[in-house]
Amino acid sequence: MPASDAATPVVSAFYDRFPYPGDPLQDGPPPGYNWRWCVDSAWAAATGCLPPRAGSGPRRWRILDAGCGTGVSTDYLCHLNPGSAVLAVDISAGALEVARQRTRRSGAAAQVEELRIEQRSLLDLAGEGPFDYINSVGVLHHLREPEQGLGALAGLLRPGGLVHLFLYADGGRWEIHRTQRALALLGAGTDEAGLHLGRQLLAQLPETNRLRRHHEQRWALDTAADANFADMYLHPQETSYNIERLLAFVATAGLEFAGFSNPEVWSPARLLQGELLERAQDLSPRQQWSLVEELDPDISHFEFFLSKGPVSVADWSADAALLAARGEVNRCLWGWPSTSLMGPDLQPLSLSQESFELMRALEQAPNLSIGQLPLGWPAATRAAVARQLLEQRLLLPVL
Description:
The protein is of the alpha/beta class. 39% of the residues lie in helices and 16% in strands. It folds into 3 domains: 236 residues, Rossmann fold (3-Layer(aba) Sandwich); 63 residues; 80 residues. It contains 15 helices and 11 strands. The longest helix is centred in the first third of the chain and has 14 residues. It is globular and about 70 Å long. The two termini are 44 Å apart.
């Protein structure tokens, strides 16, 4: 293991004891979806469009799952990106054994061109890549030197490729950090005894205590599994960020910030209205994010895309541009084909008959532009329906 990765044995041993995440194994495909693990959907969210397919089959992406843990993300990456090549790595042998069981039982390997699950540090992947898409959720903030980890991922990414990261945020982890420090003072350690003491502490604090209330109201369900509780309160090494430090961190690797993967969280309109909202909307995007960060202390993490090279975001504001594009139906939908379905963020949607008909037409004539689809509608109607589907992220335009 590289000298720069000196903390790896400590973290690896922790996850051998508590393989994370603690999601149960099951036979068959994983339940539901997370569009951030469907590269088509993630690509369209970051760039506003999809590249053309190289043939009639699915796009064949080269994907790295950097820090796959027990394989929850790997399982989804395989099932949501059929025909792709997936490399999943982690430093914990215990977590990887669960990942192999999970993907074996789900049939993940049969969905992709190649699936490799290997015990390797993301700092030691020379010769791999370049990758189109790198997924690294909840990993870099556990490295001794997160900047080195981000630099390693940047070196594995192809020009124009995307990274999806999830990192801890200072504000929403205030109570967690205090609980972690309290357990360290009590000598709780990072083993089963520490787990017992941690659960005992949060059960014995007075009911009115802020740390106990925060845990019970916000995190009790998420930490029901012992591995999840240990990861939150007992982890031997972690870093968290605020907006300014996060963007400075991104800059160390020469990558471009390509947007949050939960952009609705970072909109001032979620929190403000009237004159206050008008003032907020006059701020730069970076200032708006800082404002939201200050106003919402429950934000516990950042999830976002980075690109290798500037992102050119497609502009669909003109009807003519939208009608000239081809389109695909987002595959991260529950209940399609139907007029009642769940959208990409599992939000319930009721489609108009026109929306339903346009989406069906997209599937039946994938080589036609939106303006050429045999719908018999005037251009203005066609553009209005397509734009609504675009805003709902049900329609993914193809350049």
